[in-house]
Amino acid sequence: MKIVFCSDPLYPNRPDMSYDDEVKAAQEAGLEYVLIDFEKLTRDEDALSATRRVKAVETPGVAIYRGWMLRPHAYQQLYAALQERGVILINTPQAYQHCHYLPESYHIIAGQTPLTVWLPLPDCLDMQIVRQALAVFGDKPLVLKDYVKSRKHEWAKACYIPAASDRAAVESVIQKFIELQGEELNAGLVFREYVPLQNIGAHSRSGMPLTKEFRLFFLDGKLLYLSEYWPEGSYDGGTPPIEVFEGVAQQVQSRFFTMDVAQRTDGNWIIVELGDAQVAGLPGPNDAPHFYQKLNAQSLSVIS
Ligand SMILES: Nc1ncnc2c1ncn2[C@@H]1O[C@H](COP(=O)(O)OP(=O)(O)O)[C@@H](O)[C@H]1O
Ligand SMILES: [Mg+2]
How confident is the model at residue 260, as a pLDDT? Predict the structure, then answer.
């Protein structure tokens, strides 16, 4: 099984420095890698040129992309261009979008995740439509994000809404969020009931509240790897109930995805979000060697 990394923007023969730890760990685990040009793929929308350094192989084999997040359209282009060369990304474009866009997989995690409503662009810019959509929350507090990401580090200004019924607060947080996301805004707005999560400190730079959250990587329905989500903050005892989440994982329409889970103040656990595991960061500074060892071991038995 191959890993697909992005090349350094200045030196196309070298991997992007931000992934140095992962490249080293992948090699040490015995995994081969190829490089693609992220800028050519996303900025120039030229998937052919982005993949030109990937050698075509006669016998197609499964590969895993490990790199920056891609819009579904760019992923589709990458998938097709690599497929031409016999390199088959583990997740189809449909599977990628299923976990990348929260609304797509919400029905699968609904029993384990806070109540969520969403509005696509441009409806989400119409405050009357927003108010109607938020009525279901009454005066509960909310968390705002787009289909993919939040501005969690701008928690008070652009993420947390103290009451869904507070028009001024709703409008101000939405406005700030849209302004900060700029070109990065993905597909629409997502509003989620805020639930009190166990606090494990405050982020050293942004001050956002850190919660007891873990990132679970699933490969072919089985837990591959688990990591504490925040490298800072005190995780004392208590890990997530894996059996419960493995049950939900069976329903997710993707071979390789992440499930971020967090513990509520009442002790119960929730799913915070799913993500495509190919574009999900390894949270801890020491995760890479363990992650790639496990990936290689499981790939030998499961992936074909
Ligand atoms: N419904 C919620 N209730 C309470 N806290 C939440 C909720 N959703 C998210 N959070 C907090 O906000 C953070 C960011 O939310 P998340 O959906 O993971 O966005 P991102 O994709 O930007 O990571 C989470 O790590 C968690 O601490
Ligand atoms: Mg998150």
Answer: 98
